[in-house]
């Protein structure tokens, strides 16, 4: 299994339209066939010194393998998402995990 964890920091954290636009863009990625499961959300309310809750949105995607992830990376829905939404974020951090 290949797990693609993506964390987004918005440029304008308080802008509700930016929040809605990013979430809507993330939702479009669910149409990519190589994704087994996808989870989109915001930081949980848990707070401990080891938890980084500074991000605004997270997207966790599960693929069967790295090849499925590679299909996702060049898929037209993904490239459109980046083109349409990149102006909304100031930072993106990705953690890929083989499980």
Describe, in plain words, how this protein is organized in 3D.
The chain has 99 residues and is α+β, with helices and mostly antiparallel strands. It is built from 3 helices and 4 strands; from the N terminus they run βαββααβ. α1 (16-28) packs antiparallel against α3. The mean pLDDT is 98.
**Approximate strand percentage:** 25-35%
Number of strand segments: 4
How much helix, percentage-wise, in residues? 25-40%
Radius of gyration over alpha carbons? 14 Å
Count helical runs. 3
Morphology? globular
Provide a short characterization of the protein structure.
This protein is of the alpha+beta class.
Highlighted features:
single chain; globular; alpha+beta; four-stranded antiparallel β-sheet; 3 helices; 99 residues
Give the helix/strand layout.
Blueprint (H helix, E strand, L loop, with lengths): L1 E9 L5 H13 L6 E7 L15 E7 L2 H9 L1 H10 L3 E10 L1
Antiparallel strand pairs: 1-3, 1-4, 2-3
